Amino acid sequence: MTVDSNESNSRIVSRRTFVAVTGATLGAGLAGCLGDDPQNGDQGDESADFTVFASMPAVWDFIRQTAGDQMEAIDLVPVGEHGHDWDPRTDVVEQMDDADGFVYLRDFAAWQDDAADQLERRDDVVVIEASEGIEFFDSPAEDDDEHWWMDPVECQTGVENIADGLAEIDPDNADTYEANTEAFNDELQDLHEEFEEIVERATLESLVVATHDSFQWWNRRYGVDIYSPVGTSPDDAASPGDVEEIENLIEAEGIEYVLYDVGEPGRLAESLATEVDAEILPLSPVETQLDGTPEVDTGLEMEPDWGYVDHFQEINFPTLEQALQTE
């Protein structure tokens, strides 16, 4: 979904306090609008001594879960924008003038790598590569598939990387960050085990996703086959031949649901579902935060402060239960 950045909101959130900031565009200076006109009545954690910027929603939540109340986590991607598709204004580094840290994903978006390169020249900012030590793999969707955060097990390494970076920023609270990491990684392990349990009860092994394919790490970890007529970028388009192939697959395997990314337009999902007499269900790659319903309204109401676990529990797991036809 494309939303004009003048109408989008940035999120400034500690682990226990949610403040959504409206108003000025990123180009007008993110630092200048922090704390202005919050969507709700709560104020941010003014006691936080450090500010860490996140490059997309999943990373933002990993920071706030790890930092607790010690740091302020700011997601550069505005509410309503897709983390894989969003491209900031060229002065994004200047907008992080007050940053103590920046957490990014290697090879996910060119602007993130460029910002990391520039910030590494400063001696007052710790640049944290959340993907460090995580090996990408050649998936059916792309070579060097970088969507590791869709795997709750791999996420635990990413969270540990973030904790190490936060401890570098604030050594006095290193033990707190370590404890927070252990607690959150326990949640991620529980998420992994719940995913395994869903797959064990599945009577189908295949999913059709009619938006960009962020989900191949599920195939690697859980053996779920993911098919999409679209590539790995929200900008990719499906060819008529690809769509026909997916239609034939749906009919051959008895697939009853066409899935779509909650942060993207659902036109292809709707037309495909109509063509094969299927229903539509949402999935989340945790790349978009929404305040309300997605473009394809399936009765889902999202909250802009949902974290990683919320996206799985509220969106992905209910959809998987239906789409995989669990017993």
Please tell me about this protein's structure.
There is one protein chain. The protein has 2 domains: 5-187, Nitrogenase molybdenum iron protein domain (Rossmann fold, 3-Layer(aba) Sandwich); 194-323, 3-Layer(aba) Sandwich (Rossmann fold). Helix 4 (110-119) links the parallel strand 5 (101-104) and strand 6 (126-129). Helices cover 37% and strands 14% of the residues. The two termini are 34 Å apart. The protein has helices at residues 30-33, 57-67, 92-95, 110-119, 152-169, 174-200, 216-222, 240-253, 267-276, 308-323, and strands at residues 9-13, 18-21, 50-54, 71-79, 101-104, 126-129, 206-208, 225-227, 257-261, 279-283. Helix 2 packs across helix 5, helix 5 packs antiparallel against helix 6 (174-200) and helix 6 (174-200) packs parallel to helix 10 (308-323). The chain is built from 10 helices and 10 strands. By secondary structure, the protein is α/β, with parallel strands linked by helices. Strands 2-1-4-3-5-6 form a 6-stranded mixed β-sheet, with helices on both faces. The chain has a two-stranded parallel ribbon with strand order 7-8.
Average pLDDT, rounded to a whole number, is 85
Distance between the termini: 34 Å
Helix content: 25-40%
CATH T-level topology of the largest domain = Rossmann fold
Number of helices in the DSSP assignment:
10
**What structural category characterises the helix and strand content?**
alpha/beta
Which series of helices and strands comes N to C? EEHEHEHEHEHHEHEHEHEH
Count of spatially separate domains: 2
Oligomer type: single chain
Rg over CA atoms: 19 Å
Write down the overall geometry.
globular
Low-confidence stretches: 1-44
Organism: Natronobacterium texcoconense
Coiled coil: 174-205
InterPro entries: Bact_metal-bind_prot9 (IPR050492), ZnuA-like (IPR006127)
Keywords: Coiled coil, Signal, Transport
